[in-house]
What does this fold into?
Amino acid sequence: MNSDEYANLERVEGAHWYYVAKRAFVRDWILRTRRPAASDELLDCGAGTGRFALEMQQHCQTRVLDDHPEALALLRQRFPADRVHALAGSRLPLGDASVQYVTALDVLEHIPDDVAAVQEFARLLAPGGLCVATVPADMSLWSDWDEVLHHQRRYDRSGLRALFAGPEWELLHVNYTNVLAYPAVWAIRRLRRVRPARSNAPRAEDRVPPAPLNAFLRESFRLSAMWRLPFPFGVSLLIVARRRA
It folds into this structure.
């Protein structure tokens, strides 16, 4: 991400419905699927400001990984030095089968070789370990927001499933999320193509909505992400995959 995006993220992620709900349902999927022991290790890849890993510390041991200097500076203020890992090259700096959980919250879309990244997740996970990842969905929603965040792609369900298609993975859940927001997001991003926003205009993604709307969007996003009903579309995708023995 651009440097100023970290300031935007830190400013809104504590209250904005999207970030709050995403952290909540990823945590809930972990607790529902494989409740952590206090000694279990979770690696949050692309940890950003570290908020998710901080919240998970009440359930297990957490490690954070990033490759951006701005993120690493924030993470080193919030975690012990031996819990912060800087990515150098494509190989993650931990041993085989060394963690019980890998999370990648809106990370894979930034990585040119997402296949190699998922292979690394499999290498790091102990047998029975869990990977939970979220990604932006639907290339028809591509916008200036994706470009500012240096996204390589948006995904569809089949493309995300294909990343985890190897024999080392058992797919527990793959579904679209953020379904109710899809019509509004689709309309806003179509409008941007016709009438681009001024360069200094605040983006909708950077503003916390009024409290009632923020609460409604947060709960609808969180609850729908827990449903097993297969949705045909959504703004995001969620995958929960178990490392086979």
Observations:
- The radius of gyration is 17 Å.
- Residues 63 and 82 are 8 Å apart (CA to CA).
- The chain has a mean pLDDT of 92.
